[in-house]
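Entry type: protein chain
Record version: 2
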Amino acid sequence: MIRSARAEDAEALARLAGELGYPSTADEILARLAALPDGDEVLVAENDGTLDAWVHLCIVVSLESAAFAQIRGLVVTEAKRSTGIGAQLIRAAEEWARTRGVARLRVRTNMTRKRTHVFYERCGFGLKKEQRVYEKQL
């Protein structure tokens, strides 16, 4: 079942974020959920009361191009990868974007995540560009 995330999912969301490489506590996840901008969505894949995956979606509005939906993060628990759950979340994300009137869905993924690249290409995504990400600690 695909549904919107709830506060009581925080522990499972944190566990999954850790699998993605972003260790988090349930309290941190709760704070992040509360801080998400209006309009963002976190969908979860639940099976028999267990959360196996989540996707975070937003609409990006910018001056230089038409608005588009963006997958901010997607993770499927390792034990359930390659079972179709990720593809179900992608289809849910596509529907979410369509209902908000945007015609593009974009995702960014680390260059080292080769298996993820294959997954997104299987789901119909095409490589748009490669870029570097710079960060400055403040």
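Comment: The first helix runs from residue 10 to 19.
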